[in-house]
Write a structure and sequence with these properties.
The complex is a heterodimer of chains A (about 140) and B (about 350).
Chain A: H1 3-25, H2 55-79, H3 81-108, H4 122-126, H5 131-134
Helix pairs in contact in A: 2-3
Chain B: H1 2-35, H2 51-60, H3 72-87, H4 107-128, H5 132-163, H6 168-173, H7 185-198, H8 223-248, H9 255-264, H10 272-281, H11 284-304, H12 310-338
Helix pairs in contact in B: 1-8, 1-11, 3-4, 3-8, 4-5, 5-7, 5-12, 7-8, 8-11, 9-10
The chains are: A mainly alpha (about 140), B mainly alpha (about 350).
């Protein structure tokens, strides 16, 4: 067993030990109110969650997928930049040009903006020069 | 025999890491108390030094609450995943020359992957609690973590361009002449902002905005599973400060001592003084000092800045920081290739 393998096993063991200490040593006397969902001062009631949520979160996750893939695809070029030379650079730049156009399109579509009810949001206030694109 | 040695090695890394987590919480409370003209914890142990251990002990003896409407298995699995993957990052950290657990060729990739999986723990914990505060908190936290992870990985891309290697030790050793802070100063600032956001720290701790979302994704968690989130948060703070100092400040190398050696031309002499100075120039104390300063800056930032709004947080990430880093990703390879100064992986020389 190498040290790396042991380290990979040590973390779950540590977590299980801490959890077991808690489950064994602590008192446990539940009743209905204690085990219900947290609510500020009132009776909690079910059915408020696991429903719709803002589409912005989904869009951010989708765009993260694209951009992370893009960066991961550039990693091989970056590690071998010395051997690839100018040819590899040109290919990388073409690749990035397409993605930058897509990014500009996303900004223009306001896909990267979460609607706020406050009038003065960040871009509006301090980047008024860019407001044609951002707002 | 080798099994015993590897067990000792693993414990030698993880026990100090957990103890340092305890002391970081203490130092945070003490520093913030000084900044707000209070005394802070001072009763337990000398100067309140044992406060964190007392807190951890208390939390381990508290009653655990398993809400009836929650998915119990995922509810307990989420914090465990977060803790495991926050601590696994310590696997590839070089503390001094030859002092590491794993010298993997793709160490940086390993750290990125591990920090990405830690997001799943938060998502699972918030979703499985089946409470609207936890659900909204985990949505916010996940969106924030994945957005800022993009910035961290694209800054890492440029660090790898200038060092030519994905190995953490090679990245450190490449900075013997000059630390990467000098060529990449704007990116260091971007990376530091990104690392504050990635660890859910104060100006960006929207997931647990107390006035809106009680306690974010950990609203329903109590006792030891809350300890797991707590440990994971502070362990990832220390880890990302270590990563900052490795990428931009030369890790365990001391740039000042190296410049003294080269200025005084000491490299040829073989005296005791020379041996001493070469020990100092690459000792773990350098890494510890750099990391401590960065952790202090984390606390300082928390004491100084008010929390921003969620839409502002996302705008800063996608419309300000990301275009800056993408511009650098295009500019830097062009400069490096245009001036014919393509860096080489020094471990291949």
């Amino acid at each position: 067993m190498t040290t790396t393998t042991f380290f990979l096993f040590l973390m779950p063991i540590l977590a299980i030990i801490l959890l077991a200490v808690n489950l064994i040593l602590s008192p446990h006397n539940p009743y209905q109110e204690k085990d219900s969902a947290f609510e500020c001062g009132f009776h909690s009631f079910l059915g408020q969650n696991r429903t719709q949520f803002s589409i912005s979160f989904f869009i951010f996750a989708l765009l993260f997928l694209l951009f992370d893939l893009e960066i991961v695809l550039v990693y091989p070029y970056v590690v071998s930049a010395y051997t690839n030379g100018i040819y590899g650079l040109v290919i990388m730049l073409v690749f990035f040009l397409v993605l930058t156009l897509g990014f500009a399109f996303e900004i223009g579509k306001n896909a990267l903006k979460i609607e706020s009810r406050q009038v003065y949001n960040f871009n509006y206030k301090s980047w008024s020069g860019y407001s044609l694109i951002y707002n | 025999m080798s099994n015993i040695i590897s067990i000792i090695q693993g414990l030698l890394v993880i026990v100090p890491a957990l103890i340092s987590v305890a002391f970081v919480t203490i130092s945070e409370r003490k520093v913030m108390a000084s900044m707000q003209r209070r005394v802070g914890p001072n009763a337990v142990g000398y100067y309140g030094l044992l406060q964190a251990f007392a807190d951890a002990l208390k939390l381990l003896l508290k009653e655990y609450v398993a809400p009836t409407q929650a998915n119990i298995i995922l509810f307990f699995l989420g914090p465990v995943i977060t803790l495991i993957f926050a601590l696994l990052g310590y696997l590839v950290i070089p503390y001094a020359p030859g002092t590491f657990i794993s010298d993997h060729r793709l160490g940086i990739f390993f750290m990125l992957a591990v920090s990405a999986i830690a997001t799943y723990g938060i998502l699972l914990a918030g979703w499985s609690a089946n409470s609207k505060y936890a659900f909204l908190g985990s949505l916010r936290s996940t969106a924030q973590l994945i957005s800022y992870e993009l910035i961290l990985s694209s800054v890492l891309l440029l660090v790898i361009l200038l060092t030519g290697s994905l190995n953490v030790i090679t990245i450190v050793e490449s900075q013997k002449a000059v630390s990467l802070l000098l060529p990449l100063l704007p990116l260091f600032i971007v990376f530091f902002i990104g690392s504050i956001a990635e660890t859910n720290r104060a100006p960006f701790d929207l997931a647990e905005a107390e006035s809106e979302l009680v306690s974010g994704f950990m609203t329903e968690h109590s006792a030891s599973i809350f300890v797991f989130f707590f440990l994971a948060e502070y362990a990832s703070i220390i880890l990302i400060c270590i990563l900052n100092s490795i990428l931009f400040f030369g890790g365990y190398l001391s740039i000042i001592v190296f410049s003294i050696i080269s200025l005084l031309d000491l490299s040829r002499e073989d005296t005791l003084f020379h041996v001493l100075i070469s020990i100092i120039s690459s000792s773990p104390i350098n890494l510890a000092v750099k990391t401590s300063i960065l952790v202090f800056v984390f606390i300082w930032v928390r004491a100084s800045f008010p929390r921003i709004r969620f839409d502002q947080l996302m705008s800063v990430c996608w419309l300000v920081l990301l275009p800056i880093t993408i511009a650098y990703v295009i500019l830097l390879p062009c400069v490096v290739s245009g001036l014919l100064i393509n860096p080489v992986n020094i471990s291949l020389l």
